[in-house]
């Protein structure tokens, strides 16, 4: 054995000896003896995961969660779905619409920027900016940032939808444990 192996062995021995056989948070009276019951309880409480589900085992495709699982993101997109998007960057946490004008007044346009400050559904989660562009002719346009009613209404509508989506998501996340017996019957 070389020096590194001996050093690793001594370190592991010291580490295991210092544990005194107690695991933090593990109470034998509260933990089921049967491993299948422990796995079932942990998965139902959301404390574990199954590798076969993550990598598409059991004949299913992988279960990946993207931006559509974020209630704020989904609610924001649904709220401004009538406007063309200029940029949508989930990892950067920003949505930017293109200039939008209705058919009634083509000299005025609006642009909305939504920055996500957190993934939690709460009142300070979004930083919304509303820009107005008013043009006298093609080369003479004035762009101003507006504070006011539209910004407040957008924030309220997005948070209301996000709360609904979060509640629906919470109802759909509980999945009873499948020990593999049902999976074997499906094939």
Strand content: 15-25%
Tally the helices.
Answer: 6
Fraction of residues in helices? 25-40%
Number of domains: 2
Sheet of most strands: 5 strands, antiparallel
Question: What can you tell me about this protein's structure?
Answer:
The protein has 187 residues and is α+β, with helices and mostly antiparallel strands. It has 2 domains: 61 residues, no CATH class; 106 residues. It has 6 helices and 5 strands, in the order H-H-H-H-E-E-E-E-E-H-H. A 5-stranded antiparallel β-sheet has the order 1-2-3-4-5, with helices on one face. A hairpin with a 2-residue loop joins strand 4 and strand 5. Helix 4 packs across helix 5. The radius of gyration is 27 Å and the shape is elongated.
Could you give the topology of this structure?
Elements: H1 3-18, H2 35-44, H3 51-54, H4 71-79, E1 85-89, E2 94-97, E3 108-116, E4 126-137, E5 140-146, H5 149-173, H6 181-186
Helix pairs in contact: 4-5
What characteristics describe this protein?
alpha+beta; 2 domains; five-stranded antiparallel β-sheet; 187 residues; 6 helices
What's the quick description here?
The chain is of the alpha+beta class and 187 residues long. Helix content is 37%, strand content 20%.
């Amino acid at each position: 054995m070389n020096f590194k192996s001996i050093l690793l062995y001594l370190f592991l021995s010291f580490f295991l000896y210092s544990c005194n056989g107690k695991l933090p948070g593990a109470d034998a009276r509260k933990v089921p003896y049967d491993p299948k019951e422990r796995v079932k309880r942990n998965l139902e409480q959301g404390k574990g995961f199954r590798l076969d589900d993550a990598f598409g085992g059991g004949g299913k495709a992988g279960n990946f969660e993207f931006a559509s699982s974020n209630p704020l993101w989904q609610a924001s997109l649904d709220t401004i779905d009538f406007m063309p998007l200029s940029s949508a960057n989930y990892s950067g946490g920003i949505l930017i619409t293109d200039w939008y004008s209705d058919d009634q007044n083509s000299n005025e346009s609006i642009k909305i920027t939504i920055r996500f400050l957190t993934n939690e559904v709460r009142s300070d989660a979004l930083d919304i900016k509303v820009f107005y562009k008013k043009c006298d002719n093609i080369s003479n346009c004035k762009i101003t940032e507006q504070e006011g009613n539209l910004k407040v209404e957008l924030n309220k509508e997005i948070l209301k939808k996000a709360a609904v989506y979060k509640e629906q998501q919470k109802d759909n996340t509980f999945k009873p444990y499948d020990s593999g017996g049902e999976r074997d019957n499906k094939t």
